[in-house]
Amino acid sequence: MAGILSAAMVIFSIVCIIMFMVNMLQGYFQKVKRNIGTFKAFGMNGRELIQVYIIILVAIVLAAVIMALIITWGIQGLLPMMGMEKEGFNYLSLWNTTTYIATAVIIVSTILTVIIVMTRLLSQTPGDLIYDRN
Q1: What are phi and psi of 44, to 5 degrees?
Q2: Per-residue exposure over 51-80, b if at least 16 CB sit within 10 Å of its own CB, e if not
Q3: CA atoms of 102 and 99, how far apart (whole Å)
Q4: Rounded to the nearest 5°, which phi and psi values hold at 104?
Q5: What pLDDT is stored for residue 74 in this prediction?
Q6: pTM (2 d.p.)
Q7: Is 27 left (phi over 0), alpha (psi -120 to 50) or beta?
């Protein structure tokens, strides 16, 4: 039962992270679409823009994942010292396949989200982006 509940929480967390990233990216790109239109007007390729944003957002996501793993690892080390761990039972299992799979899914979903949102945005002409015409 605990394994099923844990898997459900991980899946729910990943879905929430993906929804947050989509909303955040759409809001951000609405603010900077004039700049993106200017880049397109000066001849910058859409593929180059997508690659730049993928690098930036994957770096941000990796930094967040690394910080979360370090904090969780520290908490995992503190639990036995506080007497909160029973013999043979670990309340917090960090280094397992679920962690690796969830991290990979989050990174891949970040890349796919950037590609989808940017492709939709870059399908507009530079004039539409600069002058905010829909």
Answers
A1: -70, 135
A2: eebbeebeeebeeeeeeeeeeeeeebeeee
A3: 5
A4: -65, -40
A5: 87
A6: 0.78
A7: alpha
Nearby residues of 49 by Cβ (< 8 Å), 6 or more positions away: 36, 39, 40, 118, 122
Range 33-44 average pLDDT: 90
The SS3 call for residue 63 is: helix
Count of other CB atoms within 10 angstroms of residue 90: 11
What DSSP designation does 82 have? T
Tokens (6 digits) for 124: 């507009």
Angstrom CA distances, 79 to 20, 41, 44, 82, stand at: 31, 57, 52, 5
Mean pLDDT confidence for 103-120:
89
